[in-house]
Design brief:
alpha+beta; 18 strands
Length: 429
């Protein structure tokens, strides 16, 4: 028997460590060659680690949520063949079964030393100090007379409250005393009819995607001086055009608002190159990109992910709709590739029909801007002297004030507004 030490391999350029997000084995279990050992998360993707050998798992590097350096031991496996020499074999007189049991949490085996050990001598307990006199507590209703009006008594009866437990501020219990008891009696076991009980506190370890999101958002807010600009847009004509295109789309994907917005974003970027950029904090360099690699914030069960539409400026609305659907599905099912989750130059985030009046989105660092369309609503508007029904949408943009000035952000959004409100321009050369 020998031990095989499986070391965490290099799983990406520039990656120094990875987080354990799931173990698929336990100490003492047998694992087969090529079976899953663990899921490891880096800044870019989640990678499945497979066992290179068959055998019994005798050591695991840490718990879910721990960070493991590249090249360090992830797992040690007892094999039938030769080991790799990274970990010393156990002494010859130590059976493997005993070692595994000793390392397995909750093992039921008891060592010989533990059985043979004499019972510990228990010293006599010291005489306890006299306890302080207890604070007087109001006696239950059946032990003392409770002074209260018939109305208070009737209300307490309807609520199932024992007036003997209610503290009176004056000489008798009043409605205000009963109200105070109802507000603060949750910890005394009282449960008012129709009220919901408080649930037990639930500590949840922040790991995996949730931890990455927390780290990235915190770093973005610490490092970037955000400002947000919001503008209202009349999307009535655009919504009419979208309905016509969808009615005659044939086998092509259904169009949402997002493909049109992306076309407008890409058409206005050449006039405002500072929007489609990245800021290198350490080098003090801003890179303005010619191509628009558009990040698309997508909500998944694992948390917020940002798949990237490559060269969005070269795609029409139908191609964008297909790519949006494909990338969103890949992100939600965990099948998105590393290259599909990295390299964005500008991000769009939308709550869809959930909407909201306006949002103040957090920049996807190291980008310098993020655009957030909000919910479309119908409202009456004045068109000259005429009153008409219009479909309106607020659009938010958050920018890095180190790179983008307020005037530039406002000017960019006004250029977007012109295209959105006159949608035929989206298709004009």
């Amino acid at each position: 028997m020998a031990r095989y030490s499986f070391r965490l391999p290099d799983i990406g350029e520039g990656i120094a460590e990875a987080e354990i997000v799931a173990w698929h084995v336990k100490i003492g279990e047998r694992v087969e060659e090529d079976a899953q050992l663990a899921d490891m998360m880096t800044d870019k993707a989640t990678v499945e680690m497979e066992s290179p050998v068959s055998g019994i798992v005798v050591e695991l590097a840490g718990e879910v949520g721990d960070l493991i350096p590249i090249g360090s031991t992830l797992a040690v496996i007892e094999t039938d063949g030769d080991g790799n020499g990274d970990v010393e074999a156990p002494p010859a007189d130590t059976p493997v079964e005993e070692e595994i049991a000793a390392e397995t949490p909750g093992a039921e085996e008891v060592s010989v030393a533990e059985v043979a050990a004499p019972a510990p001598v228990v010293a006599p307990a010291p005489t306890p100090a006299p306890a302080p006199a207890p604070t007087p507590v109001a006696a239950p209703a059946h032990d003392r007379q409770v002074l209260a009006s018939p109305a208070v008594r009737a209300r307490a009866k309807d609520l199932g409250v024992d007036l003997g437990q209610v503290h009176a501020e004056g000489d008798r219990i009043r409605h205000s005393d009963l109200d105070a008891f109802l507000r603060y009696s949750g910890g005394q076991g009282y449960h008012a009819p129709g009220a919901s009980r408080a649930r037990a506190d639930e500590p949840i370890k922040v790991i995996g995607m949730r931890r990455k999101i927390a780290e990235n958002m915190a770093a973005s807010k610490r490092a970037i001086p955000h400002f947000t600009y919001v503008e209202e847009m009349d999307v009535t004509a655009l919504e009419d055009m979208r309905a016509d295109l969808n009615a005659n789309r044939g086998g092509r994907p259904k169009l949402t608002m997002l493909p049109f917005l992306i076309v407008a974003i890409c058409r206005t970027i050449p006039q405002f190159p500072m929007i489609n950029a990245r800021y290198d904090d350490e080098g003090g360099v801003v890179t303005r990109y010619g191509a628009v690699h558009l990040g698309m914030a997508t909500q998944t069960d694992a948390g917020l992910m940002v798949p990237v539409i490559r060269d969005a400026q070269d795609k029409n609305v139908w191609q964008l709709a297909s790519e949006i659907s494909r990338l969103a599905e890949a992100a939600r099912t965990g099948k998105a590739k590393v290259e599909e989750l990295t390299g964005s130059t500008l991000t769009v985030t939308s709550l869809g029909p959930l909407g909201g009046i306006a949002t103040t989105p957090v920049i996807n660092r190291p980008e310098v801007a993020i655009i957030g369309p909000n919910k479309i609503v119908e409202r009456p508007v004045f068109d000259g002297d005429e009153l008409r029904r219009a479909k309106l949408m607020n659009l938010s943009i958050s920018c890095d004030h180190r790179v983008v000035d307020g005037w530039d952000a406002a000017s960019y959004v006004q250029a977007l507004k012109k295209l959105i409100e006159t949608p035929v321009l989206l298709f004009a050369d």
